[in-house]
Structures are given as C-alpha cells and as structure tokens.
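name: query_chain
kind: protein
chains: 1
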Amino acid sequence: MLYLITPDSTVYTADIELGLALADEKAGRRRLADLDWRPDPGTVEPARLLALALRHGIDARTGLVVHGGFVEQALEPDRLRAVQQNHRLVTQQLESIADEPRFEDRTWFRRERTVAEEARQASNGALREAEKRAKDLDEDPVQDHLVRAWRRAGGLAPAG
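structure:
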C-alpha cells in the first residue's frame, strides 16, 4: 500500500508494491503520480502523513508518496490503545454480569485472572515498543530534497 499526499492536504492510496511502482517508473511505463490513486477513507491525518513524507517519502511530482509500512508503524500505538480500551470495556461488562464463582471453580478463576494479567502486561509492553518505534520515525530528520519536492509541487514549507 502506498500513500500520496498532495499540497491541498488530500490523501490518496494505491494498492501496489513500492518496488513494482518504482520499477514501472524507471522503465518509463508509469510515473508514481499516474498510479491508480483513490481517496483515502481517513486512515491517516494529512498532517501526520506529511510529517512522515518529509522524512521517509518519495517525490511523485504532484506530492509525496509514503510506503504503507511507515504509516502502519506510526499508527500502531493508536491501534493498540484502542484494542486495550475495547478489552477493558468488555472485561468490565462481563464482570458486571458474572455470578460469584462456585467454590469448586475458584482455582480456575484465579488461573484465568493470572492469564489475563499476563496478557495485559504483554499488551502494555507491545504498546511501549510501538510508541518507541513511532517516536523514532518522528525523530528522523526532515530530508531537504523532500522539502524541495514538496515546495515544487506547490506545498507550503513546513514550520520548524
């Protein structure tokens, strides 16, 4: 998956591998700007994509292209937080309707709580790792050639 951001802050996606798209462009078959771009349904905010594009993008003349892997890495902490929140809500709902365990089931319930706590800790660890990877993306330097390409396409120079 590729993402294209244009100077009017419109985000598009194309379902094609980057290597294939670049090979087509190099062979003169099709430019990046001419891929089958479709409006993005809101996967990523334009400002977030522009920040990624200025660090990790490719000049497409009409805007900047970003590989979907960068977008996924940047959005992973939000996805994991949503999963955790959903899990907390389901757990609360189930606990609110659960009967007190019978005496013979209490050992099983303790084991289940232990497993749930281990899963919560693993989930928190995964979130910390995802946050670190996303932060690392944000801390990569803005590439001068991408800023020039963005301006050439009609985009405003980023602040800072």
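note: The chain has two domains: 2-68+141-152, 73-136.
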